[in-house]
Every structure is written in C-alpha cells, then in structure tokens.
Specification:
Length: about 240
Amino acid sequence: MNLLKEFSLNDKCSYLANKEQITHYKIIDNCQTVENQALIERGFRRFGKMYFRPICTDCHECQSIKIDVESYTFSKSAKRILKKSAHLQTYIQTPTLTQEHLTLFEKYHLFMHEKKGWDFNETTAEHYYNSFVIGHEEFGKEVLYFDEGKLIGVDLIDILEDGVSSIYFYYDPDYAHLSLGKYSLYNQIKFAKQSNKKWIYLGYYVEECPSLSYKAGYKPYITLEGRPNIDEKFLWS
C-alpha cells in the first residue's frame, strides 16, 4: 500500500446536529484492488485517493451497512420504478470529467440545498476531479444515465471482488419523478446479481439522519461491528 498521508481531524458532524466528529483519513496513491477491498470491508469510504471513516469516541451512530444481494428480492414498487425508467440509456466506464458533469452536479446540489438545507459551495473542476475521478485505478467506475442524449444521472461506484461499493449518485432534479436514486441502486443490485457478487456496500447508516436513514429500507442488510484496523479481522452481522 503506497500510503502518502494518514491523519485524523475533529470537525462539525456531517450527519447529526450539535455534534462533533473525528474522522480518520488515509491518502493512498495507486491503491490496489485487494487493498481497496480490505479498506471498504473495514468501514472506510473512498473519495478519489482519500479513504476515510468516523472514529468518534463517544458516538457510534454511523454504522457501515451492506445489502445482502443473494437474498434481496425486488418489491412491486421497485419493479414499477425499473419499468418506468427502462427507456433510459446506460453506460458504464472509467470516471471522467466534462462540463456536463459539473453542470449537473451543481444543479443537483442547489436543488438539495433548497429542498433539504444541504450546505452549498460552488464546485470547481479541480474539486470534482480530486473527489470522483482521480484514484479510480482498476476498480472505480461511473454509470451514466441519459434520456434522449441528455445526461441526467451519474453513479460513482467501485467494483469489488465480492460486491459493489456505492460511492455517490447525483441526478437532474427535473427528472425526480423517475426516482433515479432508487433506480440507480436497483441497477447496482441487478448488476451484482448478474455478476455473482454478494454485497452492495452502502456506506453509513445513521438512524437520525434523513439523508442516510433510508438505507435501512433495503433488506436484508448487515452492519459492521466495531472499527477494525487494516490488519485485524472484521465481522459483519
């Protein structure tokens, strides 16, 4: 593992009001597929070359969660969403950066700022590149969704040996009626089933955070116990 830098930071909690968080960071250059797998299995998330996870001493609300793909069945509602968006064109490729990406990313975050009160900061090409393009190595992909040639959704994922790590998804708010967030996740599950992969790693579930609590609706799922180090065994239950 080519570890460039490792550190922890105290900051305002990203998920719960009136709380602080301690986040452990690893910046890794040329991360190998097996190393990426080991980190994700132990509760780390990846943005670019940066891997991170919360290590708060007095709070354990952030739970790493993954969907059991083998046992997952699509509900009638899920099937309706899949059918409703079946006309979209889908492409999977190495992550890229275009003006279309930046315009869509900013439009989505302005919408979420107005709808849910998310903090909003104008995104630069450099920031997007460092967060979603660099560091993809062999495992990082983007799934692009088009409607009649127009980019309306971007799903950033890592394809692991045993599953898919769901990194980030953003979409055109004008197409909210298509339930694109759910649609993209259902497509991840379909891909995993077809590829004989067992899990969808969904990042963190926080019961009191509306932006993360929805993840418990995708059953069956299991969560990671504790915060195992990279050289320690891990247990999901």
